[in-house]
Amino acid sequence: MSRALGLHLAVAAALFLAQFAVGDYAQLMLTRIMVLAIYATGYNLLFGYTGLLSLGHAMFFATGLYAAALGTTRLGLSAPAAFLFAIFLGVAVSAAIGAVALRAKGVAFMIVTLMFSQAFFLTVLYFGDYTRGDEGIVIADTIRVFQFLGQTVDLTAPAVRYNLALLLLALAIGASYAAVRSHMGHVLVAIRENEDRTAMLGYDVARYKLLALVLSGTLSALSGATYALMFAYAGSTLASIQYSIHPLLWTLLGGAATTLGPLLGTGLMFTLVDVASGLTNAHLLVVGVALILLVLFFPKGILGTLRQRWLGWLP
Amino acid sequence: MPFLPHLFLAFLEGTVAAAVLALTALGLSLTFGVMRVVNVAHGEFYMLGAMLAWYLAKLSPGAPLPGFLLALVGAPLAVGALAFLTERLVLRRINYDPEATIVATIGLLFVIQQLALTVFGAEAKPVAAPFTYRIAFPWFGYSGYKLFVVAASAAILLAAWWVMARTRVGLVMRVTQFDREMAQAFGIRVGHVYAAVFAAGAAIAALAAVLLVPIQQAHYLMGLDPLLMSFIVVIIGGLGSIRGSVIAALVIGMADGIVSVFFRPTLASILATLLVAFVLVLRPQGLFGTAPR
Q1: Is the CB of residue A122 less than 8 Å away from at least one CB of chain B?
Q2: Which residue among A47, A64, A176, A293 is least enclosed by CB atoms within 10 Å?
């Protein structure tokens, strides 16, 4: 067993054991961190490995969020069906957006994604009769208890949520680990390092970029759907620009282009904001200062710096 | 009100919106054009200008004119100084890397917004107009101050054009924009040019905010809308083309003013943002811009 695989298994085991050691509040925090770390992991595939900085991932996250929330409350879907519906929409929306947005490069790509996401956000507000805008949709507890493969799953129970979140996160990180270790992952890194040269070597750069974006967007939608079903809420704040910036911040903090960086960054940022909001209600100030300091002193993030200095084997 | 006077009113409102938008976008266009960096905190410089205008105007009780003049000079200077510090302490150290700059200015956006909330509070802050002359049209009265804003914006835009096109300072800026390394080879201190341009861009945003704030109150969240609108204008106009930005600001501000009189503003915004996205996809250099070298 390689060191990298061992590290991943150790992290999963530690997270599994953590639920027996911490209190109710910390358990809920960890659940939330794990669900959002799926989002960050998806973001990292595009930003860290492929080198495409999107400022509009909130629209993919919110696609999953609203597909799950509207699917269960309006379309009468069961929770698992709404989850699959959300993933299907995640694939469709990210493929459609990617087909258009990927024609733009560099700064133009960032602004195009920002604009699409803003249009999505405004559309959510525009159809306030259905989405209930800022106030949000609340998913009833009866929907969140469902039968799955002959088992009763109760998403209102903290322990069930925790372990389900852990399972999904493990699958997401596992998928991202497998993807970046594969042939495709190496092509994505090649695109990040030098797009023109990769194209000249005969790779269909546009297809690989679209593939990365769809994978990334789908993981984001999966995270959004999980968020809606687990925490019973879908509001327009979760589709706003801020939620496009969060995964960028988490990924940068933990280390872009490292498989565990997004999880580490999400966890640290949540802890930081949690501690800071005990001291001041201006937690965005902490986020802002963290962003500036990161860019100035740790452009590679925590795990990125560790890998550069000491742990060259870190995936 | 009958249709034609109503349209005339919408046209006047559109002109005021366009004038302020053109000024705000001018600042963004200047920084993008010369430095090739996107300043996401531009809207916060604007918000800070409005907040400082409120603060400075409060310093001189009594007639509003002296306080307004104080704000007109003080707010852009203070905001420009802050931007200068940002440029020296942050942007220069990350070597104007486009992506790192976006991340750093997003951080700056949060910092400025939260500090403004903490220092000035969450409530909207009115600033009195320096004069209250009303122009009486046959159908309705119209604020003379709003027309003054239009005239002032036009004057500032002309001045900016004159500086860029006719003075040595403008020549140095254009050279730096055209070819940074060649400019350096000819002994132009590119670092100083960047710092000055970044400060000037922020100061122009603050100036636009000071002009606008007697019409629309100052609030700590007011920066987002002008940021997005400026983005739209700068992109449609062509990244880096100041002339294009001004034309686009006139068209978009006017359209926005007129459309929002007749349609729901959210729908207008959705269409505008989608339009920008598609313009950028089909013509990444904008309508009037030239592709970067």
Answers
A1: yes
A2: A293
